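Section 5: illustrative case.
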C-alpha cells in the first residue's frame, strides 16, 4: 500500500520522470522481518566484546553508542580503537542469509520500472550481493555503492552521497532515494532527490531507533508493494 504524508512536496505523478532509483538494502529491499540486522548486531556486539575484553551487555551498549554518535559502529571503532575495517566487515557479515527469500513480485516491478537502480548501503558489496541473490533481483541492480567505496564514511554524512552521484553521474533532481532510516533521507532531500521512507515495524529498525520522517515525500511500510502499485498505476 502506498502511503503519502499529509503534505507531500511532490505528487506521485512526478515519479514517472525518475531516471535513477537509489535503494537502501537492509530493512528496505528486504523487509526487517527477515531478521538479518539482529544477526549483524549480534556479530558486532561479539566483535566489540572480544576487542575490548568486556561482557556482552557493555559491548552492546558501546555498539549502540557508536552507531548513534558516528553513524556506524564501525566508524566509532575506527576512530577510537584503530581497527582494521575490512576484518570487522567480514566478521559481522558472516551470517545466515536463508531468511531472505526470493521475491518474484519485487523482481518484476524492478524489471518494469524505468531508470537505473542503484543500491546505496552502509554494508559491503559482498553483503549486498548475498541479499540480492537471495531476493532474486541481482540482475535488476545496475550498481552498488558500499561503505568501502565511501571510504568508510557512512550515511547520513554528506560525502558518500556526493561520491555516489559522481560515480554514477546522475541528476539528483531526477532521482528517488528509498531508506528505512529517516536521517539517511535528509541529505538526499537537500540534494534535490525525491525521498521515500520505508517505515519499519514498531520497535524495528536498526537498534530500534524511534524515528519519524514527516518530511519524506512518500511513505510506505513495504517497498515491494509500493513499487508494484506504482508500476501498475503507470501501465
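Designed sequence:
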Amino acid at each position: 500500500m502506498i502511503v503519502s504524508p499529509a503534505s507531500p512536496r511532490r505528487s506521485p505523478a512526478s515519479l514517472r520522470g525518475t531516471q535513477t532509483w537509489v535503494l537502501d538494502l537492509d530493512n528496505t529491499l528486504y523487509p526487517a522481518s527477515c531478521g538479518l540486522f539482529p544477526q549483524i548486531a549480534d556479530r558486532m556486539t561479539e566483535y566489540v566484546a572480544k576487542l575490548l575484553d568486556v561482557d556482552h551487555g557493555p559491548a552492546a551498549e558501546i555498539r549502540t553508542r557508536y552507531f548513534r554518535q558516528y553513524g556506524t559502529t564501525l566508524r566509532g571503532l575506527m576512530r577510537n580503537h584503530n581497527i582494521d575495517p575490512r576484518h570487522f566487515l567480514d566478521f559481522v557479515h558472516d551470517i545466515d542469509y536463508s531468511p531472505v527469500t526470493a521475491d518474484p513480485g519485487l523482481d518484476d516491478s524492478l524489471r518494469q520500472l524505468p531508470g537505473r537502480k542503484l543500491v546505496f548501503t552502509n554494508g559491503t558489496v559482498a553483503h549486498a550481493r548475498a541479499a540480492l541473490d537471495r531476493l532474486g533481483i541481482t540482475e535488476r541492480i545496475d550498481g552498488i555503492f558500499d561503505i568501502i567505496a565511501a571510504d568508510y564514511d557512512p550515511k547520513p554524512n554528506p560525502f558518500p552521497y556526493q561520491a555516489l552521484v559522481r560515480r554514477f553521474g546522475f541528476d539528483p533532481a531526477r532521482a528517488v532515494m528509498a531508506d528505512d532510516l529517516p536521517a539517511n533521507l535528509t541529505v538526499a532531500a537537500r540534494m534535490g532527490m525525491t525521498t521515500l521512507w520505508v517505515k519499519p515495524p514498531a520497535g524495528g529498525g536498526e537498534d530500534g531507533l524511534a524515528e519519524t520522517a514527516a518530511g519524506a515525500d512518500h511513505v510506505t511500510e513495504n517497498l515491494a508493494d509500493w513499487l508494484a502499485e506504482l508500476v501498475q498505476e503507470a501501465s
